[in-house]
Task: structure prediction
Amino acid sequence: GNSVTQMEGPVTLSEEAFLTINCTYTATGYPSLFWYVQYPGEGLQLLLKATKADDKGSNKGFEATYRKETTSFHLEKGSVQVSDSAVYFCALERGAQKLVFGQGTRLTINP
Amino acid sequence: GAGVSQTPSNKVTEKGKYVELRCDPISGHTALYWYRQSLGQGPEFLIYFQGTGAADDSGLPNDRFFAVRPEGSVSTLKIQRTERGDSAVYLCASSPLVGGAGELFFGEGSRLTVL
Result:
């Protein structure tokens, strides 16, 4: 079946550190892949997406590349800010925008 | 409003009671989704509507759960004979289209606690 496995949190970094949150998936075919973010007190919102192999999604300094060979979609940012503190969810689409989410990774950035 | 609105934001009920959770999607969005998020987990798909009809209800855990969208806009998730295991945050999302890896717009959720 379809599933997403994320790096377990919580993750705590200092401001300006490099961030990687690992995400791997199991799926039939080649689903679209997403990163959603939930800031404190807000609803989930789309951070970035990739729809086919080797696509790179990017937004707000975050990037993730769809790697078919390793079935991965790791999230990276070169220099994190305190405002990036949030919970990050990796997800795949199993048709008609029905998403399968990972368990989420809580990120805290200290000044 | 500009975003997806869910009410109530918090609901505490007793085991065995009936509960209704409401979702008001972004105006003009034809697709509407319900997800359930248990503590420490990612959201899990429950049901989605295209217009007024439930296009896929395969995620509903059992027949105590039911959802409607009678006029193709507001949706209500109904839970009968609530159990403690139903405690979770229920999320609603809407989208202007179905398919094609479009973006889902989520509400802040309704937190249900069953005592």
